[in-house]
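B., you asked whether I could sanity-check this one before it goes into the benchmark set. Here's the sequence:
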Amino acid sequence: MTHCILIGAPIDSGQRRPGCLMGPAAYRVAGLVQAIRDLGHTVEDRGDVSLPRLKEAHCPNPVVHSLDETIGWTDALSDATFAASGEGFPVILGGDHSLALGTVAGVARRAHAEGRPLFLLWLDAHSDFHTPLTTTSGNLHGTPVAYIAGRAGFDAFPPFPEPLPPENICLYGIRSVDPAEHAALLQHDIAINDMRVLDEFGIVAPLRAFLNRVREANGLLHVSLDVDFLDPSIAPAVGTTVPGGTTFREAHLVMELLHESKLVTSLDLVELNPFLDERGRTARLMVELVASLMGRKVFDRPTRSYA
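And here's what the prediction gave me:
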């Protein structure tokens, strides 16, 4: 039995399309708490994190927006996730992907306190390897992996505790990477398990290889699941759709493998924009994926009607 601690992160500041701040409420309405409890786990919902008093921050890149607010969320979520990770299994309900600037910092603090390495599984269409200095959109939801890996350009942010070495980061399901991001990824020697890799070698082999490294190192494993990891035909409620994502069955297989590994210690659910959803379809699918991660088997799934 796992004690799951839900933390709402109603964040819209990392991008420009309104709606992600409604994500935490959508997960609750879609039955996340009951889905986890039905599997025999306990759930504690700590509500939504609030922004602290903001401090003025500056960035030389003029296109960067909402910097003060994003740094405020980073501080608040680092503290909330660090505290929850010492008491149970944090599940952070987002919110755009800039929330990972704080959540992964929080679990990195926990890993340091326990004397264990931290590993990151990034389930996303994008590599999110820009820095505040290199982004051309100004959207800070495209920067968390660079922050986590210790790239320069985050002077306005609190220093990331013990940046992750490249072999501790797995980008999985990637299919949209800017040329500047790709060049920087090669310099950092981070493996990109893009959809070509998954098509060629299958869903299972690259993931198992990474999980084996986590197990051998006795590491903590943080999973950051972006809605756009899924193909937009089954998950339309995201502002950054990229065709060619994982199918329903592939996504559930990933979650089932993660459950069987017993290695996952914390989870982000990000970029759900209920304003773009079709009668809650995407929110319910994300809840079902969490259920698979928490132990629901393929033959346990109820028949769904969206009529």
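One thing to flag: The first strand starts at residue 3 and ends at 9. Otherwise nothing jumped out at me.
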